[in-house]
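Exercise 7. Given the encoded structure of a 310-residue chain, write a plausible sequence.
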């Protein structure tokens, strides 16, 4: 990299000396301002000046400086593409020294470039589908094919006439890779009814996860089961009291001793408690089981499949 630094120190001077007659004063001024900002450590300002200088007066030397500026900012894919432009421009002007330098930088960057693949499965294809990456519409030729991108987070979105829009994001490190599959876009009206995605928001369908439902169902089933058990116990107590009442009555349920009458009353009370407990417990148990069985899974069917970056 030290050799690159020395080479760029020469590049920063060479364009103005070697081709001053072919450069506009405005392009020369912008180029020099870019060099000054680069030396001062203002990478964003330097890149902006070099880019504007290239727009005013295209030059291979400016592209080399611009590519170097982009690489210093971590914009590896942008720098790689800029060096490719510089190599072509330098070859056109027979500046083979600059061409070799650009090719060296291209080769060095190639090992560090992140790769992103945006795919549209056959099931997701629909008339008028537009897929964007970082607010740039991707042509069909780029869909499903590896593309070099700058390291960092990238926004991918999709839209189509009569369909709800969708978006996601993925972060990629230098030399990393990621694959994003565009999902099936639901009808536009489905988003408003909670059946799909709208304006890139997460799915809010009627089957959206309800994390409370399954625990509540389990708790209800437990309460219902306990009520049934209590009802069975109460039934046993009712039968015991009934037997005691018969022993205390010469002719059940009439002509009973005081103890027999009391036992008969207890039998009726426990029988009522048993019946109510079993009936209510069974109902609560069934509701609990139904809640557990119908609880939706915490899934997001409209999300893209993203392969994590290395």
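Solution.
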């Amino acid at each position: 990299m030290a050799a690159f630094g020395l080479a760029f120190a020469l590049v920063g001077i060479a364009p103005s000396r070697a081709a001053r007659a072919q450069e506009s004063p405005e392009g020369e001024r912008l180029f020099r301002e870019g060099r000054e900002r680069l030396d001062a450590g203002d990478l964003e300002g330097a890149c902006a000046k070099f880019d504007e200088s290239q727009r005013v007066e295209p030059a291979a030397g400016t592209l080399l400086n611009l590519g170097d500026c982009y690489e210093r900012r971590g914009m590896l894919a942008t720098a790689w593409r800029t060096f490719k432009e510089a190599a072509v421009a330098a070859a056109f002007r027979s500046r083979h020294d600059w061409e070799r330098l650009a090719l060296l930088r291209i080769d060095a960057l190639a090992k560090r470039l992140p790769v992103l693949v945006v795919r549209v499965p056959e099931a997701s294809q629909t008339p008028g589908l537009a897929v964007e990456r970082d607010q740039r519409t991707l042509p069909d030729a780029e869909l499903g094919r590896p593309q070099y991108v700058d390291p960092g987070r990238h926004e991918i979105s999709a839209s189509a006439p009569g369909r709800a829009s969708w978006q996601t994001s993925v972060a990629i490190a230098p030399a990393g890779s990621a694959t994003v599959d565009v999902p099936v876009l639901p009808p536009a009206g489905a988003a408003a009814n909670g059946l799909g995605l709208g304006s890139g928001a997460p799915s809010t369908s009627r089957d959206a996860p309800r994390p409370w439902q399954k625990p509540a169902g389990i708790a209800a089933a437990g309460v219902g089961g306990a009520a049934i058990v209590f009802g069975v116990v109460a039934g046993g107590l009712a039968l015991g009291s009934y037997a005691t009442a018969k022993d205390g009555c010469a002719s059940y349920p009439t002509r009973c001793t005081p103890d027999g009458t009391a036992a008969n009353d207890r039998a009726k009370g426990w029988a009522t408690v048993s019946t109510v407990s079993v009936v209510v417990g069974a109902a609560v148990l069934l509701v609990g089981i139904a809640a557990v069985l119908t609880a939706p899974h915490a899934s997001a069917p409209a999300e893209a499949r993203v392969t994590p970056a290395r």
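Remark. The longest helix spans residues 258-294. Students should compare their own answers with the one above.
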